Amino acid sequence: MAAAKPSPTDTWDSTLPGPPSRNNFGSSDLSPSGLFAFASGSSVSVVDSRSLQLVSTIPLPPPPGALSPFVTSVRWIPLPLPRDLLSTEPSASHLLLAVADRHGRVALVDFHLRSVVVWLNPSSDPKLGIQDLCWVQARRDTHVLATISGSAFLSIYTNDGVFWKYDSGSEVLSCLRRDPFDSRHFCVLGLKGFLLSIKVLGDTENDVVIQEMQIKTDSTELLRLEREAATNGSSSPASAAFPLYFARFAFSPHWKNILFVTFPRELLVFDLQYETALSSTPLPRGCAKFMDVLPDPNKELLYCAHVDGRLSIWRRQEGEQVHVMCTMEEFLPSIGMSIPSPSALAILLSQSDSTMQTITKLHPDGTSSVDFDNPFDFYDESLLVSKTTFISLSDDGKIWKWVLSAEGVEDALKNVSDLDIGTEAAHPEAIEKKDSSDLDEGLVVATTSRSRCHSSTSSLGKSDLSFKISLDGQLQLLSSTVSTLAVPSPSLTATLARGGNIPAAAIPLVALGTQNGTIDVVDVSTNAVAASTSVHTGVVRGLRWLGNSRLVSFSYSQVNDKSRGYINKLVVTCLRSGLHKPFRDLQKPERTPIRALRTSSSGRYLLILFRDAPVEVWAMTKHPVMLRSLALPFTVVEWTLPAVPRPVQSGPSKQLLPASEGVTASADSKSDGSHEETVESFAFALVNGALGVFEVQGRRIRDFRPKWPSTSFVPSDGLVTAMAYRLPHVVMGDRSGNIRWWDVTTGQSSAFNSHRDGVRRIKFSPVVAGDRSRGRVAVLFNDNTFSVYDLDSPDPVAQSLLQPQIPGTLVLELDWLPLRTDKNDPLVLCIAGADSTFRLVEVIVNEKKGGFVPQSKSVKERFRPMPMYSPILLPVPHALALRMILQLGVKPSWFNTCSTTLEKRPHLIRGMASSSKDLRSYMIQLPPLGDPVVPEMLLKILEPYRKEGCLLDDERAKIYADVVKKGYAARFAFAAAVFGETSEAYFWLQLPRAIRHLMKKLMRKSPQKTPSPASASGVDEASMPSKILSTGSSAPEARKIDSMCDGSLRLMAFEREELWTRANERLPWHEKLEGEDCIQKQVHELISVGNLEAAVSLLLTSAPDSPYFYPNALRAVALSTAVSKSLLDLSLKVVAANMVQTDNSLTGTHLLCAVGRHQEACSQLQDSGRWTDAATLAATHLEGSDYARVLQRWADHVLHAEHNVWRALILYVAAGSLQEALAALKEVQQPDTVAMFVLACNEIHSELVNELSSQDEEGTGEGTVMTDLPGLEPEKEEVAAVCEYFQQYQRKLVHLCMDSQPYAD
Questions:
Q1: How far, in Å, are 766, 848, 1029 from residue 828 at the CA level?
Q2: How far apart are CA 731 and CA 328, in angstroms?
Q3: What's the whole-model pTM score?
């Protein structure tokens, strides 16, 4: 549990969102740090995806003079936690959210401040609603926002507005996605298959490079829909014009230039480089249409969402880009669902959980992770291959968290896990061992002597994998548009539902009736739906509390026969048991429907108002009994609220119950509280304007005989439409906007005109002892606006509060929250908006001016029933402090708190943290860099969060307990993953391999003669003219890439074997492609991997009349006579130079390869922008310093042109340019990461030195190794500067942490 509940003054002023709908276009986004943002109505909500708790909801301000439009797109800004503390003040720029709406407005929202930071496009045009958003990196420190507006307009924004526009004409644009391999590159897809590839090289119009392509697809259905919608115009966004026709795509996270595309009835794999589809798979029979496609970050699996809420799982076949469906899973279970069943609006995959799974795979725990206290935590005949977390959103206000487990047979996977993880995975060489394994069919099963009941020699194919879906959590928000609300206001005479005379306590619950017949009960202290129960089949038209544990509600429906009567349904709902009990069941329809319900404060009496019919008075006992029918033409009826309490004296006899419950409703009630003697009264107005007050005592109803006001008080021009009654005052409003009040004991009265529309509701504010005014009322008008008046003031209109907090939102219902216990507590209004939101709005009384002012105090963290494990939400200095503690290494027992979630499992993380101990003892070691005092100070600063148990949840604390022992790089990767910095996490995971690669190059020994990948040859000469593209001839030792291995690290590939193998893997994908352009690209691929024989074979297939015949023949001759002579060498070099001058660089490159000038060929490829091809060519033919030069130049390009610092760093390390790596980190101003980089490199280097020295002692060593890494020697000036820079950063961080207050109390 979190700390004790704070006072109401710390928690009010909040919004609970309504359910999202198709009008929101399914807009949602899941950040790498685990924050889930989604749109509902005109609001944006943020949910912590780990604990499934609502963080906050921000309504988007409306355009001037208009209602708030639907939010249609949201996207998190892809910025890491800011660490440049020495030159700038910390800001929450990493938590900005791009939000766009149906009127074309685009804004950046800070959800901590709950406000718009900047409007990128404030102009409002309903025809140019935003369809989708995408962040693109234009420069190292600049992100721009690409948007689709209307049906065909593409725009790119900076903070200053639009700098580039594009009109696609008749093509309806559908979605935007950014390339994971190049953050400057993104693509746009249209509904008819139009594809636009865009690269942003800066923030001016001339810096945008575009390429148009077309994906062939069947658009027959779309054309029919366009004809049907032609009358409505065609400028609406795709999701508005065709809400159930989805065209979506995703970049492959494993293969560059590969797109996965779904149209409603087709799944395609598209190659951007070849501008053609590699495969096309129709929608399987019996499946609903495709809605979205999600590639798995770690495995070569595809997840396709369908419009019926199902998820299909597809696996790539080995050796080709063809996917086969494995199974189908249900994401909207039919059990317990309402009718009609809800629709799935969005399904997203959790990147943060996938990154953490990669870390656990590379650094596994040595012990079993099965929880023996949990009977569900056993795997009998299957073992886990992977777990993938999904978040889905449905239009009934539910957020679902699913975990998809891929499992295989036990004995098979026992060996697969050895291959996948490596038996020595704790060491840096584990990854290398895994990569060099000979994997056949993806997951290979070796023979084992411990086979139980089946053979273990078969490979684990598609049939051996089983998938299991499990619901991990669910968050219920408002289930439908709110139709009515009710707050409990029990008096001292209200008793508990189980009987007796125990007074009822005031409770922080608000009941909401909805359009779909559901009653949602909101706990306002936690801003969450505490219960949601389906009671009616139609709209809940009236809802009232009976005391504080029962609700009475009604709905009605009209019958279709000749009588045109109504079936009225009345239900009592017990919140404790969840049971619904209908009463007043009639056998046949009634002439009129129920108009309203009114319950007394005690919950004992109920008035049922009908249209044009008598009012019924019921006693709400265990079995409700009708006491009487009053045949008077009532317009409004209201029970008295609990009377104003008198001041009480301090001492033992002081009133113990909250003062807001008031005292008994009448002076005639007896002290024993017996049911028969309790008197409650209600005031009413008749059609002719007459007023009255009736008393109900037991089963008797009598006239109260109040003191009547003067005759002029009776309205002559307006019918009374609203009333509020609290002894001794009755307040009334009429349809002309007049407000009158009257004292029933003295007869005094007064009136004023509000100059507004007719009055619909009047609600007295709760009053406690000591209040200066007792006449504050909230008035809701027929135009759905409201005001707050003080009837005790001389001029109520001049000092009223006129709804400044929620502009652009129509108010359907309002009432005061009756939880005030002290005169200093704020007045809080509960408001149900037409935008489906439920809001709490504080009204602060300005005692000096006698009026009302909006609330302006700082927002504190709300009470939460369980901790929210999202460190990214901490104040920036505190988040950086936790990051540093995780990096330097803290004992796992430090996370173990006394909270209920961790106390259940004390055996998993041993030791209980005590704040009385020396906190330095929790650090696993004092860091060799920086100030040794800083970690202890940071632990003290983080102590409030640790006590709350809100730093890491149980699962991640267990992962950290395993990782903390695996060295600096593993801890750095974990810290980066916790804060959503995926690329940085992959860099730290790859760093041990890069250092090992560098050490092999630096070892002073004679290089081993290894066969070149290009040396193998086995092509039949007779088949040369035919089109041969077999990879077997070029790479007899090539291993197949495991489609089920962890592919996320492929973004950081740098080793020769890995680059070459991956290039070989792509060759079969293009074998069946036709056309001269495709042939030219295939020849280039073959020469890059050294398969000259297949390249010659392909070149000789050119027809004599082809424009490519002579260049192809020249290259074929040159390549086939590659046994070089000096004259041939010289002549071909001249020809190649001439071809380069004629801008035919690829042909010249191939000639250079033919004569062995691979270094120059790589330089030419890099000059022409083919960086990956140059790396592949270098990996095939170059070694040592030649290969390092190619890597270093590639790293320079990645850093300065692509702005991907982590990818550049791994290339610098592999090339041995450690000083350039230090300079790059300094350039991006990350002083902490520079220091951590030096620590990790030195630690990995020392481990390798120890390993090699032990081999030398055993006589197996093959050379000596340098004592220090070149460029990182301790005496170097750059390394000393890093240490000083880091100490300055630490000191600044401690000062900022001291100055920053924690969010939670």
A1: 9, 20, 74
A2: 61
A3: 0.82
